[in-house]
Amino acid sequence: MTVCAVVVTRDRLRLLEECLAAVEAQTRPVDHLVVVDNASGDGTSGFVSHQYPDAELIRLERNEGGAGGFHEGLRHAAAGAWDWIWLMDDDTVPRPDALERLLDAPGRLDGGAPPPALLASKVVWTDGHVHPMNPPRLDMKDMDAVVRGFESGAVPLRFCTFPSLLVRGDVLARYGLPCKEFFIWSDDIDFTARVLRHEPGYFVPDSVAVHKTESASPPWEGGGRFFYAVRNGVWVAFGGGLDRKEAFFHLLLLAGQVRRYLAHERWSPAAVRTVARGLAAAVKRPAR
Predict the structure, then answer these.
(1) Distance between CA 38 and CA 57 in Å, rounded?
(2) Tens-digit pLDDT profile for residues 182-224
């Protein structure tokens, strides 16, 4: 069984150093490393070339956001026919046994269960609590299966984010790559929802990664970047990864985030324009 790690980075060399050191220190080593440098200007490419000469370095000529980085990273990894592709941002620091725990999870399933398409770690912030931007959405349709999943350590998953996510290599041929038009935010929700609407995936709580963002702020505290939360949230609802009921509740969740954002920004004209721009962009040009 082979594993290719894909790390997407932009202008965060110090964090990238910590991330790559954690990948290198895994109790189950990766077989190959791909680093996608999203047009960094801080010497990232030189560092990777010098310190990790065996890594495959993909340098993008312009910043294509996290979505574009994962799109290109997965595209290159898929050409290598790896059994699993392990995804993370440059500010993700997996614990030493994170990959080993993920790979052990399929052995805990019932003998007749189909092989998982995705396996997701528990992603925490630096304080040890689940990161508010990375909670997994569990598949709650069968509560008995959820209970059995917590007992076995592999809980049915409906969708999740990219930090410390294992993607089975052969699923890309069936469901395609993450949509780079998302730029940032929700590209991972869209991608994993599309896959897990048809194939099983699991949340593995004893596999842990630390997402070392500057703060544990929710999206509605993102200032002008909330444009992407609005536009991309609508794209996810109508992108085909969710069924009608899920899409309805996803839009309700987005409406709640908009309300919190406007309240946080004190209903400033700039905040109202940000929301309006996001909605207009989502309607004008749906993501491909």
Answers:
(1) 11
(2) 999 999 999 999 999 999 999 999 999 999 999 888 888 889 9
pTM beyond 0.85: yes
Are 85 and 6 contacting, i.e. CB atoms less than 8 angstroms apart? yes
Nearest one of 116, 205, 107, 126 to 166, comparing CA atoms: 116
Residue 93, CA distances (Å) to 98, 124, 182 in order:
10, 10, 24
Check if the beta carbon of residue 69 is closer than 8 Å to that of residue 38.
yes
In degrees and rounded to multiples of 5, residue 166 shows phi and psi of -95, 125
Q: What is the fold, at CATH topology level, of the domain defined by 3-211? A: Spore Coat Polysaccharide Biosynthesis Protein SpsA; Chain A (3.90.550)
Q: What is the CA radius of gyration of the chain?
A: 18
Domain coordinates in residue numbering, the chain:
3-211, 219-284
Strand, coil or helix: 102: helix
Whole-number Å distance between alpha carbons of 168 and 93: 21
pLDDT tens for residues 59-109? Answer: 999 999 999 999 999 999 999 989 999 999 999 999 999 999 999 999 999
The span from the CA of 184 to the CA of 118, in Å, is 21
Sign of the alpha-carbon torsion through 74, 79, 80, 82? positive
Please identify which residue in the block is written with the tokens 């077989």.
31
Instruction: Tell the residue number behind the tokens 């980075």, with chain if given.
Output: 9
Return the ∠ at Cα 132 (arms to 131 and 133), rounded to 5°: 90
User: How far is it, in rounded angstroms, from Cα 146 to Cα 208?
Assistant: 19
Tell me which amino acid residue 141 is: K
Contact present, 179 and 160 (Cβ < 8 Å) = no
Q: What single DSSP character describes residue 266?
A: T
